[in-house]
Amino acid sequence: MGLYMTLFLLSTLLVCASVSISGEGLSPKVGVCYGQLGNNLPNPSKSVQLIQGLRAKRVKIYDATPKILKALKGTELQVSIMVPDEIIPDIAGSQSAADQWVKKNAVPYYPDTKIRYLLVGNEMLSFGNTTTWSQVVPAMRKIRAACKKFGLQKIKVGTPLAMDVLESSFPPSNGTFRSDVSESVMKPMLRFLDRTKSFFFVDVYPYFAWSSQPSGINLDYALSDSKNLTYTDPVSGLTYTNLLDQMLDAIVFAMKKLGYPNIRLFVAETGWPSGGDVTQIGCNTYNAATYNRNAVKKFSANPPLGTPARPGVVIPAFLFALYNENQKPGPGTERHFGLLYPNGSDVYGIDLSGKTPDSAYKPLPEPTNNELYKGKVWCVVSELAKDKDVAAALSYACGQGNGTCDPIQPGGKCYKPNSLAAHAGYAFSSYWAQFKNVGGTCSFNGAAVPTAKDPSHGDCKYPSVFL
Ligand SMILES: *[C@@H]1O[C@H](CO)[C@@H](O)[C@H](O)[C@H]1NC(C)=O
Ligand SMILES: *[C@@H]1O[C@H](CO)[C@@H](O)[C@H](O)[C@H]1NC(C)=O
Ligand SMILES: *[C@@H]1O[C@H](CO)[C@@H](O)[C@H](O)[C@H]1NC(C)=O
Ligand SMILES: *[C@@H]1O[C@H](CO)[C@@H](O)[C@H](O)[C@H]1NC(C)=O
Ligand SMILES: *[C@@H]1O[C@H](CO)[C@@H](O)[C@H](O)[C@H]1NC(C)=O
């Protein structure tokens, strides 16, 4: 009787607090994203050991690599697999294409490999053409139908979106989906997620929000490490103590505006880079360790913390990423999100179970780039670039500006060494020096990176940019 009453009261309270938000068997657990864009990464079975060594409870991969799914067999790790972007049009248009994908990529491993989430594409609404956008939800429906057909009862179907799916995220109560997707894509997607009791999977990076306006946001607030800063949303009256909660609640409010107040959040990616290019700010080991340890504390807390708009609600989460991935395109930070180096040793101590107190970790190196770099910089060839792309960028740069490439012509002061890298480095630096003040960048589609190390040699002086 006593027990019955207690249970009754508890369940009444739960129902009042969070109608359909509490999920079956969902406890606060942190996982890791196992990206594979590196040419020097450990093999799948070694990687699974490393993931277990981090005490992760879940792992997310960006495809359905058979060797990884086999290596995960029999482990306790809950697994998220992904339908690659390129085949979404096919799947959206054909139930049998969806059936085949699920039959080939999930059925052979389920249930021994604990596949629990099947994500359809990656940040699909951030790029590409509107035709593809409108195919995401039809593909999700067909993938789910396929899972049902093959009896994969425990798999939830979703799609991870980036924060750019919002046109406004501040104050959090003003969270609004972009008008180009709101009616056409988000409404049917939310309807699907609600009906199937799935999650809104979101990639949320306070790092990007802070680094795009470092003077407007307090760094400790972005690191979820401020002891005394708060922000009160003037409309909702909710008080925030960190940027991550603000960003998550912006999604909650945007969903509510479209009539879906109860869809659960799932952090499909979050993290902070431990390094980057010289022109990038705040990417260092100290900040990465601080942010990620705080994220683990938040997402593993039991009872769960939730957010100001949804206090006490579980938010499952994946940290990005397992490894520093040396072939990931984009600025240097993209290749420095790893918890581990490719040799398997940790970039800083972290325990994804949340059971290691901060005091048990070794002291962190002091942050070195919490302010924007000031000084001379040059623009040189990226280690990752392919020769043909460097040659194309060289030719483009030489066609711009005044005398951009004169010194690398035969007889010029920078002709020797007559190598693609030396000539391209000169051309990129010379281009950047002329065009930076009108918005020119040191990127050349990823063929170039900025450096603070002067590449000049002998009589050959490379033009520089002053930051
Ligand atoms: C947009 O995507 C659709 C469907 O995937 C494709 O048929 C079309 O060619 C694409 N359009 C452009 C401009 O890339
Ligand atoms: C709220 O969002 C709208 C766009 O949806 C934006 O125009 C407006 O400036 C935002 N309000 C505030 C106070 O930022
Ligand atoms: C918050 O605390 C920091 C030190 O932890 C201190 O430097 C700062 O002045 C405090 N700010 C406020 C508004 O109290
Ligand atoms: C692993 O790689 C990192 C970064 O290159 C290096 O600092 C570290 O010493 C290496 N550890 C081992 C055990 O080789
Ligand atoms: C090239 O020279 C012309 C004429 O001196 C000048 O107007 C132009 O701004 C220069 N372009 C650049 C990129 O410096």
In short:
By secondary structure, the chain is α/β, with parallel strands linked by helices.
Task: Give the topology.
Layout: H1 2-17, E1 30-34, H2 44-53, E2 58-61, H3 66-71, E3 78-83, H4 88-93, H5 95-105, E4 114-120, H6 130-149, E5 156-158, E6 161-162, E7 166-168, E8 176-177, H7 182-195, E9 199-203, H8 206-212, H9 219-222, E10 231-232, E11 239-240, H10 243-257, E12 264-270, H11 285-300, E13 306-307, E14 310-311, E15 317-320, E16 376-381, H12 387-398, H13 420-435, E17 448-451, E18 465-466
Parallel strand pairs: 1-2, 1-15, 2-3, 3-4, 4-5, 6-9, 9-12, 12-15
Antiparallel strand pairs: 7-8, 10-11, 13-14, 16-17, 16-18
Bound molecules: 2-acetamido-2-deoxy-beta-D-glucopyranose (NAG) (5 copies).
Kindly describe this structure.
- This protein has 467 residues and is an alpha/beta fold.
- It has two domains: 8-360, TIM Barrel; 376-466, no CATH class.
- Helix content is 33%, strand content 15%.
- The strands form five sheets. Strands 5-4-3-2-1-15-12-9-6 form a nine-stranded parallel sheet.
- Strand 1 (30-34), helix 2 and strand 2 (58-61) form a beta-alpha-beta unit.
- Helix 5 packs across helix 6 and helix 6 packs parallel to helix 7.
- The longest helix is centred in the first third of the chain and has 20 residues, at 130-149.
- The protein is globular, with a radius of gyration of 24 Å.
- The site of one 2-acetamido-2-deoxy-beta-D-glucopyranose (NAG) has 5 residues, from strand 7.
Task: Pick out its properties.
single chain, about 475 residues, alpha/beta, TIM Barrel, 13 helices, disordered N terminus, binds 2-acetamido-2-deoxy-beta-D-glucopyranose, cell membrane, glycosidase, GH, glucan endo-1,3-beta-D-glucosidase
